[in-house]
Design a protein that fits this description.
By secondary structure, the chain is mainly α. The chain has twelve helices and no strands.
Length: about 300
């Protein structure tokens, strides 16, 4: 089932879409903690494979239950495979692999490059998401806010030995992949969020099966901890399947640039979890950082409000 809204018509974000953006930050931000648990028993490729298989299975079942069908045209499936590769398979693996070698704080800073990659790609490929001075200022405010929130000291970890540098480049590449995937989604044939999510996850599972079997293969389940299994299932259900539904909803309604702002909210969620559940102190620069991030969101909203709204 395709939607009647062409990809060039998006809406100025309303309260519901801001809530969806926050929900996406919570879903994606929680993945980092679950991956740390999953890595105790699974290698990065297996984590990505199992989470996408879980997501694909659940989304396909839900699709059948609600009476929707997957498209049969080659163009839709070409975009599904492109979105799966650039938006799921490649960045999920790069993140999981990179987390083994570098601290999560630096991961958060490097991932905040993603909105800027969206801004540049959207400017050239999406006529209704041209970069403006106000929008660029907002994105830069957000980037500085993320650095302050996580801690400028984390920037000192940039560089290091060859393994560390490669891991940092992997995280940066993952951030760029997410940005490109958001733009590809705007250009893809328009379907319901559920159809898009199921199609992309099924395409991703199909891509991963031969690679996973060749590089990892079935694990020795006698040595796999229950916590790691629960973590992988949770990643698949919530951080992948449910997050995909929210992601495609936001792209369809508000565009790639607005959705990319989730990367500035991820560190905010991490700090909130650390302070409330783990009794970690709020960073000294926390108030200033949060102010910059929320100014970034406000400036971006002002930029979006200056565009003609879709009826």
């Amino acid at each position: 089932m395709t939607t009647s809204t062409p990809p060039s018509r998006i809406h100025v974000p309303n309260l519901l879409q801001w809530g969806a953006l926050l929900a996406l930050a919570v879903l994606w931000g929680s993945r980092y903690y679950a991956v740390e648990i999953a890595l105790r028993s699974f290698d990065p490729l297996s984590i990505v494979f199992f989470q996408i298989v879980v997501a694909a299975t659940v989304l396909w079942l839900v699709l059948r239950l609600v009476g929707q069908k997957l498209p049969h045209d080659a163009r839709s499936w070409l975009f599904f495979h492109a979105m799966a590769l650039v938006g799921n398979v490649a960045p999920f693996f790069l993140e999981s692999w990179g987390q083994v070698a570098i601290d999560s704080s630096l991961v958060g800073i490097l991932m905040s490059v993603s909105p800027l990659s969206v801004l540049l790609a959207a400017h050239w490929l999406l006529p209704d998401e041209r970069a403006s001075g106000l929008r660029l200022t907002g994105f830069l405010f957000g980037l500085v806010g993320v650095v302050l929130l996580i801690g400028p000291d984390a920037l000192r970890a940039i560089g290091g030995d060859a393994t560390t540098i490669v891991a940092q480049l992997a995280i940066l590449l993952a951030a760029v992949c997410y940005g490109i995937a958001a733009v590809i989604t705007r250009l893809a044939p328009q379907h319901t969020p559920l159809t898009m999510s199921a199609g992309v996850m099924l395409a991703g599972a199909a891509q991963l099966i031969p690679l996973w079997w060749w590089r990892s293969g079935a694990p020795d389940w006698s040595t796999v901890g229950a916590g790691s299994v629960i973590a992988v299932v949770a990643i698949g259900l919530f951080c992948t399947a449910l997050a995909a539904l929210v992601f495609f909803y936001l792209i369809a309604r508000t565009g790639a640039t607005f959705q990319s702002l989730v990367n500035y909210l991820l560190p905010v969620w991490a700090i909130a979890v650390g302070s409330t559940l783990l009794n970690e102190p709020i960073p000294d620069n926390g108030l200033a950082a949060l102010t910059l991030i929320f100014v970034s969101l406000w400036l971006t909203q002002r930029s979006a409000s200056s565009r003609p709204t879709a009826p």
